[in-house]
């Protein structure tokens, strides 16, 4: 066709390498072969011919947001003769109609983030992982922080909800792990934290969040509630992070962890390996981050409670036990996401695991048997109907043993034996080992024998060292006094004591205990 612009058809065909007849055929019809192919006609009658224009199109125009499956269900209900075979045809037809006649759709605008400008925070639910701690299900979620430019990530296990305390502690941990501060911090409006709060509480939460960002000289920004794609730089990585965790759990072969610390190490190691792959980008971003402040700011809430005669205090519908010597004292409590730090004045007296109420009607209990075992020894029958009895047992073996004792020994003997077992675990610091012995007895069909267990965990005689104290003779002090006298006479002008009288009143002094001397310090 390029040669045809300057030459006749025959010459252009010769230059192109095909025959003159082909040249004249192209002259007559310049369309491509694919364009000459006639459109394929329908091979079967249109099953929607009678309802498309009359019923389906008006339905789509009246309710633009209706799903294709909803339209299909209504049409089949109206016309049972259509059957299930028209579903795909209907979905394809609706999709094509909406492409030509549908409403305008939202457009996602891809953003370019300069290094050091934005860090994003969000919480994600991970209940589908099915994580257990020593066989007990762990109700938790993950806090996820990410830098928009480099992809630096930080994840932290959160035991409660999306609270300001969880955000403040986790965000500060992320910033100190990153080693710098971005210009902006973007969150999802703390919608879960604001839920069920009054106006004053909302304003206080907003003020504390603004103060947190001001301490790190970050500009706080929020996306509009319910518009997840405005936080797209972290919403999408949520899925990648959760899939990576799922893969690691499958490779590990178990979703049960020894304790919470082991699970947290698992998350930290996994996120650390992901950050290592982005090391070059992270180093570029760290070079332009702002410096961290000299210290962290408060990442807890303050509360003030009084320790009652029950040996504990109630905070947010949860009862906590503390050492009984604190009964009657007011404590300042710092409420973190996973723990409470109790202070008497400014002195830290206890750190407790944070508990949560199971529902709005019932109270929760966080009980340490070590706090009350001394009182239970005096009143063992108090164990029978104790409000927090189930939470008192440190391990499942102890609860199982108490049920077996109640069934076989009666209430009084069962309570005495159980209190003795708890006291033994406390006195000998053998809680885990004693639980194993109890489990073995119960599995063998035997009740725990308190006397045998006391002998089993009694300190070995050889383990107590024999200390021999040799008393020195009093004559040693006489010799020391004589040496000091000689030194004093040799250097009278150097601040040493000068002897003005004999050390001993008599050479035949009966005992050094009656020796007398007069010393004068040289000027």
Write the layout of secondary structure elements.
Elements: H1 9-16, H2 20-28, H3 33-36, H4 52-62, H5 68-78, H6 87-101, E1 118-125, E2 132-133, E3 136-137, E4 141-147, E5 153-158, H7 164-178, E6 184-187, H8 191-194, H9 199-215, E7 219-222, H10 232-252, E8 256-257, H11 260-277, H12 279-286, E9 301-306, E10 312-315, E11 318-321, E12 330-335, E13 339-344, E14 347-353, E15 364-366, H13 369-378, H14 389-392, H15 396-409, H16 411-427, H17 431-443, H18 450-456, H19 475-490, E16 497-499, E17 519-521
Parallel strand pairs: 1-6, 2-8, 6-7, 11-15
Antiparallel strand pairs: 1-4, 2-3, 4-5, 9-12, 10-11, 12-13, 13-14, 16-17
Helix pairs in contact: 1-2, 13-16, 15-16, 15-17
Description:
The protein is α/β, with parallel strands linked by helices. The chain folds into six domains: about 5-35, no CATH class; about 50-100, no CATH class; about 120-285, Ribonuclease H-like superfamily/Ribonuclease H (Nucleotidyltransferase, domain 5, 2-Layer Sandwich), CATH 3.30.420.10; about 300-365, no CATH class; about 370-465, no CATH class; about 475-520, no CATH class. It has helices spanning about 10-15, 20-30, 35, 50-60, 70-80, 85-100, 165-180, 190-195, 200-215, 230-250, 260-275, 280-285, 370-380, 390, 395-410, 410-425, 430-445, 450-455, 475-490, and strands at about 120-125, 130-135, 135, 140-145, 155-160, 185, 220, 255, 300-305, 310-315, 320, 330-335, 340-345, 345-355, 365, 495-500, 520. The longest helix has 21 residues, at about 230-250. The model is unreliable at about 500-523 (pLDDT under 50).
